[in-house]
Specification:
- The protein has three domains: 3-231, HUPs (Rossmann fold, 3-Layer(aba) Sandwich); 257-332, Tyrosyl-Transfer RNA Synthetase (Orthogonal Bundle), CATH 1.10.240; 342-410, RNA-binding S4 domain (Structural Genomics Hypothetical 15.5 Kd Protein In mrcA-pckA Intergenic Region, Chain A, Roll).
- Helix 11 runs antiparallel to helix 14 (300-315).
- The chain is globular, with a radius of gyration of 26 Å.
- It has 411 residues and is an alpha/beta fold.
- The strands form three sheets. It has a six-stranded mixed sheet with strand order 1-6-5-2-3-4, with helices on both faces. The protein has a five-stranded mixed sheet with strand order 7-13-12-9-10. Strands 8-11 form a two-stranded antiparallel ribbon.
- Strand 2 (51-56), helix 4 and strand 3 form a beta-alpha-beta unit.
- The protein is 47% helix and 14% strand.
- The protein contains 17 helices and 13 strands.
Length: 411
């Protein structure tokens, strides 16, 4: 870029201030903010969109809505007219991101990366506008770099600076092995910014070191350094720990609509506003108005329903969201959903614990008995209190908790 355009002081207009507010919504940190303001001002004055990059390594096939926080921010910036770049780290996945790790991450196979990348792309298309999204794979420039290029790249950063990174420092002091190839990861992620000439890179708070590497390398290669925007990690359904499959406090983006809707409805009223900020596409003004209405006496449930419908519609459809709302209402009134599984089981008369296990409503007979003791099992709307209950031949609607149903025909 022309150096004069980079160094010129551009006027900050109301539109620039509005774009800055959109950028900062829900964000953890913008570095450096004054540089980003000038990039926005230059873009408005020249009509040249800024290049905004998000890189994701396809390390797992399962994605939950916590992963979409940065994608939502990308969509907000895309709607301001900027060029967003969804970068799939097919090359960096073979190294393994050491961020937050206390041991060397096992590398993925090429087949795993390919399958996971397809999932990630489908996920991004539900949030970003595919027609306005530049999709790239970092193997495009990383593979041609070769051994000579890799050595030249490695010469642009010192071991001392690399060891300032918290996870490397902690592993070194604990005598935990650090493989040389792990030093290459932040270098390669930073080189992505050079290859793409990015103006802004997004990532989670755990990615700060890698994002700053992009700024450093762009300066080394004579480019205007990118700004970095870190987004917080989304709290899960419990409102305490970050969303995680291992903690079972997550909503998967491929979950069926009824489950997705019901899980959003299960979060606390306090967490609801946090999710509105990070997951909703409603404007800040709309959210503030809704919050004021709730504080003025409107039922918080109305706001939660609106959020649940927005999220469900995003990953399915508005019609599916409407149906999920109706299903939730039916369940809350003790009604039976229309689309419950139907199955036939032989062996009547059959003990209730075995029936729950065979109907996949409980993982084991002992867990079934625990559910009965807790009053969480119903047969034809009546609570089961007798663990010794045996059901004869016939058809029964069996319910476990609020969400699990099955219509079972015993013979």
């Amino acid at each position: 870029m022309n150096q004069e355009l980079v160094t010129k002081k551009w006027p900050v207009t109301p539109r620039v201030e509005e774009a800055l507010a959109v950028t900062l919504r829900g964000a953890e940190e913008l570095i450096p903010q004054e540089d980003w303001v000038q990039k926005l001002a230059r873009s408005e004055a020249t009509g040249v969109p800024l290049r905004i990059k998000l890189g994701l390594d396809p390390t797992a096939p399962d994605i939950h809505i916590g992963h979409t926080v940065v994608l939502n921010k990308m969509r907000q910036l895309q709607d301001l007219g900027h060029q967003v770049i969804f970068l799939i780290g097919d090359f960096t996945s073979m190294i393994g991101d050491p961020s937050g790790r206390n041991s060397t991450r096992p590398p993925l196979t090429a087949e795993q990366i390919k399958l996971n990348a397809e999932t990630y792309r489908a996920q991004a298309d539900k949030i970003l506008d595919p027609a306005r999204t530049e999709l790239r794979y970092n193997s495009e420039w990383s593979d041609p770099l070769g051994a000579r290029g890799m050595i030249q790249l490695a010469a642009k950063y010192t071991v001392a600076r690399m060891m300032e990174r918290n996870d490397f420092h902690q592993r070194f002091t604990a005598n935990t092995p650090i493989s040389i190839h792990e030093f290459l990861y932040p270098l390669m992620q930073g080189y992505d910014s050079v290859a793409l000439k990015s103006d802004l890179e997004l990532g989670g708070t755990d990615q700060k070191f890698n994002l700053l590497m992009g700024r450093h390398l762009q300066a080394e290669y004579g480019q205007e350094p990118q700004c970095i925007l870190t987004m917080p990690l989304l709290e899960g359904l419990d409102g305490i720990d970050k969303m995680s499959k291992s903690k079972n406090n997550y909503i998967g983006v491929t979950e069926e609509p009824n489950s997705m809707f019901a899980k959003v409805m299960s979060i606390s009223d306090v967490l609801m506003w946090r999710w509105y900020t990070l997951l909703s596409f409603r404007s800040t003004a709309d959210i503030d108005k809704l919050k004021a209405e709730i504080e003025g006496g409107r039922n918080p449930r109305d706001a939660k329903v609106a959020l649940a419908k927005e999220i469900t519609a995003r990953f399915h459809s508005p019609a599916a969201a409407d149906a999920a709302e109706q299903d939730f209402v039916n369940r809350s009134k003790g009604g039976v959903p229309d689309d419950i599984p139907e199955l036939a089981i032989a062996g009547a008369p059959l003990g209730i614990a075995q029936l729950l296990k065979q109907a996949s409503l409980a993982p084991s007979a002992s867990e079934a008995n625990r559910l009965i003791e807790g009053g969480g099992v119903r047969v034809d709307s009546s609570v089961v209190s007798d663990k010794g209950l045996k059901l004869g031949a016939g058809t029964y609607v069996v319910q476990v908790g609020k969400r699990k149903f099955a219509r079972v025909t015993l013979s």
